[in-house]
Amino acid sequence: MHIHILGICGTFMGSLAVLAKELGHRVTGSDANVYPPMSTQLEAQGIELMQGYEPAHLQPEPDLVVIGNALSRGNPAVEYVLNKGLPYVSGPQWLADHVLQGRWVLGVAGTHGKTTTTSMLAWVLEHAGMSPGFLIGGVPQNFGVSARLGGTPFFVVEADEYDSAFFDKRSKFVHYHPRTAILNNLEFDHADIFPDLASIERQFHHLVRTIPGEGLIIHPTSEEAIRRVLDMGCWTPVQTTGDGGQWQANLLAEDGSRFEVVFDGEVQGVVDWELSGRHNVANALATLAAARHVGVLPKQGAEALSLFKSVKRRMEKVAEVNGVTVYDDFAHHPTAIATTLDGLRKKVGDAPVIAIIEPRSNSMKLGAHRDGLPESVQQADQVIWYAPPNLGWDLGATAAACPVPAVVCDTLEAIIARVKGQVAPGTQVVIMSNGGFGGLHGKLAKALAI
Fold it and tell me: In what residue span(s) does the Mur ligase central domain sit (predicted)?
């Protein structure tokens, strides 16, 4: 079968393409923005990519068109599909029908940490010899690919609350029917889709309704929004993580790079890994709880996490030039920015930290998070905000309200010049964006080498 994917370079749709290819289909795809790491992965898989949404990309006609949720009515390719009566489906529906049927699905949901936690869980099962299938919204470095079918009934999926398609406004995760579900955290996000937190909580409850009574739900004790979700009705056993929970961590290093895992009051093992930050410790506890549900002993899981290499674009060290370290991070929400910077600060101590942030997500562009942005950067020594041309609010006011020195730049060249004038050996530079940021990471590294 020839499947054409519209919006193929999105992290979810790109992973879907890998699975479709592995199932033996001929896969092609179009996208407005073709950039790494997804474009690199797809080309390595032998999947033909086309720039833009020309109707000509759909000639000769494919057997099925999978339409990503970034596309809407008025898009030339979408209009062509509808006018020609071509068969089409949403990505989550295709995944549910062709990959997840009859499998033990482990779903990882939450506002933050989904990609990292899904990667951790897939790796823990892999290390235990369980050869899971997985679909992850990023490229985990332990695997080098964001999706695979796997060789057993177990399938680990990043369970996103974003909508499925222009014709299906349900959250993606409603399609997945997980037996093991991690509900990591819950805050307001996706302001282009949801009017308020309560509407997201309702979608999470739709997910809870699909989890079997013989399944398991895992969540932190600290998340009031998740408690409200479960208070709407819960028919599944629950395990909790964090303070007062069944799963706890005793930090052996303040930055979270080493900790004991405790389950029901008994130490199960020690994680000694490359990652840092209390948020990643929390992710690890949820991972170990989910892995135990499918038969992996916590001690074995802790050993696996000690070999975990994180995910591309999640505090990924991309360059070290003349003593200056450059990281690439996907953070695009005030809480994610704050936890990432806090983890780095605990890791590097008093070393200078420069944060470069592009407010690129739909929620950021709408200004939904701007009140929380100044406080989110307090662990940096200075901040450079990038003002894209289509930002609809005053980034200068946000910079002025920051508790640390902050400037606004409207070109990459200005950012690079600013950084070059500020860095010294030992400086840590974190670039935060959920897009390609115009290749800033490579350009900055090159400029620092001169």
Answer: 108-291
Give residue-wise pLDDT tens across range 265-297. 999 999 999 898 888 999 999 999 999 999 999
DSSP assignment of 212-246 equals: -TTSEEEEETT-HHHHHHHHT---S-EEEESTTSS
Judge whether 221 is annotated as a binding position. Answer: no
Contacts of 74 (CB under 8 A, 6+ apart): none
The confidence score (pLDDT) of residue 37 equals 66
Omega of the bond leading into 352 within 30 degrees of 0 (cis): no
Task: Give SS3 for 282.
Answer: helix
Where among 254, 271, 305 does a domain terminate? 305
Let me know if residue 327 belongs to a domain. yes
pLDDT tens-digit series, residues 396-413: 999 999 999 999 999 999
Q: Is 28 annotated as a binding residue?
A: no
Based on the fold, state whether residues 347 and 442 are members of the same structural domain: yes
Predicted confidence band at 190 (pLDDT cuts at 50, 70, 90)?
low
Residue 241 C-beta-side C-alpha neighbours within 13 Å: 24
Q: Answer positive or negative: Cα dihedral of 146, 149, 151, 153.
A: positive
Final residue in a domain of this structure, among 305, 328, 354: 305
pLDDT tens-digit readout, 60-111: 999 999 999 999 999 999 999 999 999 999 999 999 999 999 999 999 999 8
Query: Cα–Cα distance between 261 and 254 in angstroms, integer?
Result: 15
Rg of the chain over all Cα atoms, to the nearest angstrom: 22
The number of distinct structural domains making up the chain is 3
114 has binding-site annotation: yes
CB atoms within 10 A of CB 64: 17
* Residue 110 is labelled as binding a ligand: yes
Residues 285 and 409 in one domain: no
Q: For residue 40, say whether it is annotated as part of any ligand binding site.
A: no
Asked if residue 400 and residue 362 are part of one domain, the reply reads yes
Is 336 part of a structural domain of the chain? yes
Q: What is the pLDDT of residue 118?
A: 96
